[in-house]
Amino acid sequence: MLTKEEVVQLLNPVKDPFLHITLKETGGITNVSIKEDKKHVSVKIGISKTNTAEQMQLQQEIVGILKRNGANTVGLRFEQLPEEVIQKYQPAAEEAQVSSLMGGNSNTKFIAVASGKGGVGKSTVTVNLAVSLMRLGKKVGIIDADIYGFSVPDMMGVEQRPAVRGQKIIPVERFGVKVISMGFFVEDNSPIIWRGPMLGKMINSFFSEVEWGDLDYLLLDLPPGTGDIAMDIHELLPTCKEIIVTTPHPTAAFVAARAGQMALKTEHEILGVVENMAYFESKKTGEKEFVFGEGGGTKLAEVLQTKVLGQLPIQQPYEEEDVFAPSVYQEDHPNGKEFHRIAAKIIAKLEE
Questions:
Q1: What is the 3-state composition of the chain as percent helix, strand, coil, each rounded to the nearest 5?
Q2: What is the Cα–Cα distance from 232 to 185, expressed in whole angstroms?
Q3: The pTM is what?
Q4: 109-350 falls under which CATH superfamily?
Q5: Residue 321: exposed, middle, or buried by beta-carbon count in 10 A (0-12, 13-18, 19+)?
Q6: CA–CA distances in Å: residue 40 to residues 57, 72, 308
Q7: Dihedral of alpha carbons 54, 5, 93, 175, sign
C-alpha cells in the first residue's frame, strides 16, 4: 500500500492547470491521509482556480496516477491556493504561456507536412502521424494551416468547436491530440476568400492566441505548393522540420520537389519523404498492384538528399461502430503500424 511520502512524490510533478508549474512548487499538496485496510487514499489539493473543466481533468489525472500505483479508491478535495502564491507565479505563467511555443525556451518541436500538389494525402499523413506520436507518449498538437482546404477536423471526426477562456482559444482535443483549424471558424463549409496578409494574420493567431499548454510536437498541415502560407511558416519558424508527402506517380514527385527545394533554400531540415497510395494489395490474392506507378517517393528522396520514411498502401481504416473518424487508422491496422514506425523514426531522429 502507498505511504504518505510516496503519494507526495507521485503528485509533486503534476502541474497546476493554470499556473503551469508543479504542485511541488506551489505547495499544492496540502493534506494526505491513508486507510490501509481499504487501500483508500484521500488528498487535498490547492490550485489557482477551482470548479473548472481543468479541475476535472486534473482530478482524472491524479486518480489515475494513484490507482496505477496501488490505491483501490481515491478521495479528492480541491481548494484555492493562497492569493500570495497565485500572485507570485501568475505573471510568470502568463509570460510563459505567450511565449511557450515561439520563445527560445520552448521545447516544442515543429514539423510541417508539405506537398507539391493537392490530393496526395498530406492531411491524412499529418493526422495519423500526430495520433501515432501521441500513442508513443508524446504531447501533440495540430495546426490545420491549409486555410483554403482545411480538412483535419472532418478527418478526425471532430464535431465540437474550440472554447474561449479569457483572451485565449482552447483547442479541441481528439484522440489525445490538440487541434486548431480554420474550419472551426467558418460556418457551413463556406469558401475562404482572404488574401495573403489576412491569412498570415490568422496563422499568427493560431500561435499567439491559442492556449496550447506544454507540447512535445506541433504538426502543421501546410497548403499544397509554395504559396503565401508556406512562406509565412518558413519565416515564422526557422527551426521547423519538414516532411514531404507524395504519391509514387512521377508527376506528383516532380511537383513535390518544389516544396522540398523551398525548405532547403530556407534552411529547414527535411526529415524525409512519405509515399502515400504506394500500392493496392488484393485481399483475395495478396498481390500488389501499383495503381499510381512506382518509384516516385524514392526518386524524390534522392533529389532532396533525404530518405523515404514510409510507404502507405491504399486502405481504409477499420469501421468502428461508436467512433467517427474517417481518416484515423487504428493502432493494429496495417497502416496504423506503418505510421507507428514512421513516428518512431522521427522521435529517434529528433530526440537522439
A1: 40, 20, 40
A2: 20
A3: 0.68
A4: P-loop containing nucleotide triphosphate hydrolases (3.40.50.300)
A5: exposed
A6: 21, 6, 52
A7: negative
Lookup result for grid cell 487508422: 329
Q: 250-285, pLDDT tens digit by residue?
A: 787 787 887 787 777 767 788 999 999 998 988 888
Which residues pair with residue 165 across a beta bridge? 168
Cell of 182: 480554420
Q: Which three cell numbers stand for residue 82?
A: 493562497
The hierarchical CATH code for the domain 4-98 is: 3.30.300.130
Please list the residue range(s) of the chain that carry CATH number 3.30.300.130. Answer: 4-98
Locus of grid cell 483501490: 72
Q: Could you say which DSSP state residue 8 is in? A: H
Report yes or no: 16 and 48 within 8 Å, Cβ to Cβ: yes
pLDDT one-digit tens code per residue, 167-211: 788 899 999 999 998 878 766 555 555 555 555 567 777 887 888
Residue 21 DSSP one-character state: S
Count of residues making up the chain: 352
